[in-house]
Structure formats: C-alpha cells, structure tokens
Write a structure and sequence with these properties.
Layout (H helix, E strand, L loop, with lengths): L7 H23 L2 H18 L1 H15 L5 H25 L4 H7 E3 L1 H11 L5 E5 L9 H4 L6 E5 L5 H13 L3 E4 L5 H8 L3 E5 L7 E5 L2 E5 L2 H9 L3 E8 L5 E9 L7 H22 L25
Helix pairs in contact: 1-4, 2-4, 3-4, 10-11
Length: 311
C-alpha cells in the first residue's frame, strides 16, 4: 500500500495538522523565547512519552556509538535530553523567523578567528558546501550569516503534504535561507556555487549510498556532499550552531576540507564522506544532548554491531 497516496481521511488529517501548525506559529511568535523554550521542552517530553519505540532507538544508537564508555544512566539522560532539545529546536525555528535582527545579534556568539578563516575561504569565489548535522539548531544560523553578505541555499526534502511544505519553507526563508527541495534538478546547486553561495546540506541521516565509518561502525551514508564537491571543486566547511548553557547560540566552524579528485571517483567519494562522518562525530561527542539520537541512523547498515553493555 502506498503510504503517501491521498485519501479523504489523510487529506482531512493533513488539513487539521496545517491549522494546528499555523496556530502554534502564531502563538510562538508573540511569546518570549524563554517561555517558548519551556514549551519546547514540554513538547519533547510528550513526544518521549508517546513514542517508546523512538526512545529505544535512541538507547540502541547510544550503545552503538559509546558502548561501555558511558553508563546506562548516562544513556538515559542523553536520550531524554535529545527529545527535549528537538522540542526546543522547533520553537526556535519559528521564533527566530520574526525576531528583530538586533535581538538575533545579541543572542549569537561567533569566534572572530573562525569567521575570518571562513571569509578567506569564500574569497576563492567557488562557493562552499556547508556540511552540518541534526545537531544544535542549524536552521537559525542563517539569521546571523545572511546579513553579513552571504547567500545560503539549504537542501531539503518535501513533506508529504504540500501545504505543510509551503508553510515550513516560508518560515525557513524568513530565517534568511533559500530552500531548494531535493529531487529536482541539480542545476540550481551548481549555479549557486558559481555565485559564491553556501550550499547547506544536513547529511547525518540513514542512507545507503556509501558505507563509511561513523563512531567506528560501517555506516550507510549519503554521498551527495562529496559528489558535489568533486564536480564543483568547491571546499566543504563543517559548520554548527549550538545552544549554550547561558541561553546564547554559538556559531562554530569545525574546519574545512578540500576534496581533491584522484581520478578514482568511487574512492574519492568514500574518502570525502569518511571525512564528513569524522567531523560530524567529533562535534556530536562535544554536544551529545543536541543530536538526533532517536533517528534510526544505522537502519541501512547490515554490518553494524550493537555492543553488549555491562554498565
């Protein structure tokens, strides 16, 4: 049965969902951010309570990633924090879309040396592939980057409901990011790079394009970033926006990588995506509570081993 096929019941449910989403957006926009974040944590707790399956996925993923290096209590703490984080994530995306720029500036920190290195990279005028993951809040970073003269194009997947896709695209574009839905022509990506744009790709979810290490395990991974980098001869920069204990947001660059062609396309793509996974893993280890542990990251990885844990 085609889960995406339209039926009267599904159409009605999606229409109701759009109405609820519009109401939520209207409410969040007028609330102080601190109140919104409290609501977000509550939404995360509700999601956790309603989805034991997702909680179990998070615990298994933490076992795969960390084995016995953390205790069962620590796995539980990180898993629960991950749910709360993504509740707050959703609120932030909405809130920042209408936040005055002066308030945005007040809430962000960026290392001057890291930003200077980024500016030097952009002077090549080949654009840049901005690689990130479902960590921190990658969606709101555009509110800080775009006013500094840079164009950001984010690759995204369409929701099953076109109305929801349009609504969320509007929110994201108010955060300064031009959204390009996947599945369409690749021409706008390369056109953007020629215009010295940042092509933002979130590439830490389950896939089966190429199998390369991630937390020491052979992991199914997308190959798009490496293929684009090779074809466009554009650098990959590893970029994150993480929430700090003081409530501010830190824009953090985790270095850049030039993927140079050796003539062996398959080996080059594997080398490039191995580097991507290594960089993403490093930042996850720094901020484990802010990563999407309840996504089934190793679903397409038949050789993955779930360690027997004793702690």
């Amino acid at each position: 049965m085609n889960k995406g096929k339209s039926t009267p019941a599904k159409d009605f449910g999606r229409a109701v969902g759009r109405v609820i989403l519009r109401i939520l957006i209207a409410i969040i926009r007028v609330l102080p951010l601190s109140v919104g974040l409290a609501i977000g944590r509550g939404l995360g707790k509700i999601m956790l309570a309603l989805s034991k399956k997702r909680y179990n996925v998070a615990i298994q993923n933490l076992k795969i990633a960390f084995g016995d290096t953390i205790t069962s209590a620590e796995r539980d703490r990180i898993a629960r924090a991950s749910f709360e984080h993504f509740g707050m994530f959703a609120i932030e995306v909405i809130k920042f879309s209408t936040m005055p720029q002066a308030e945005v500036e007040r809430r962000f920190d960026a290392d001057p040396e890291e930003f200077a290195a980024f500016e030097e990279l952009m002077k090549r005028e080949k654009g840049c592939i901005c690689v990130t993951g479902h960590l921190g809040n990658f969606e709101v970073a555009g509110r800080w980057i775009v006013p500094r003269g840079y164009k950001v194009i984010a690759l995204a997947r369409e929701a099953r409901d076109k109305g929801t896709t349009k609504l969320m695209m509007s929110v994201r574009e108010r955060n300064g990011v031009k959204v390009l839905n996947l599945g369409r022509s690749m021409k706008p990506i390369f056109a953007g790079l020629k215009e010295n744009a940042l092509i933002a790709i979130v590439c830490d979810q389950n896939a089966a394009d190429v199998f390369v290490p991630f937390f020491g395990q052979p992991t199914g991974t997308v190959d798009g970033p490496a293929k684009i980098a090779l074809r466009a001869e554009a650098p990959m920069i590893f970029f994150y926006c993480v929430r700090q204990p003081n409530g501010r947001y830190k824009l953090q660059s985790h270095g850049y990588y030039d993927l140079v062609s050796t003539g062996d396309a398959e080996a080059d793509v594997k080398r490039g995506m191995t580097e991507v996974n290594n960089r993403i893993e490093e930042i996850i280890r720094l901020y484990p509570e802010q990563w999407l542990w309840f996504h089934d990251r190793w679903k397409s990885s038949p050789d993955v081993v779930v360690p027997e844990t004793t702690r």
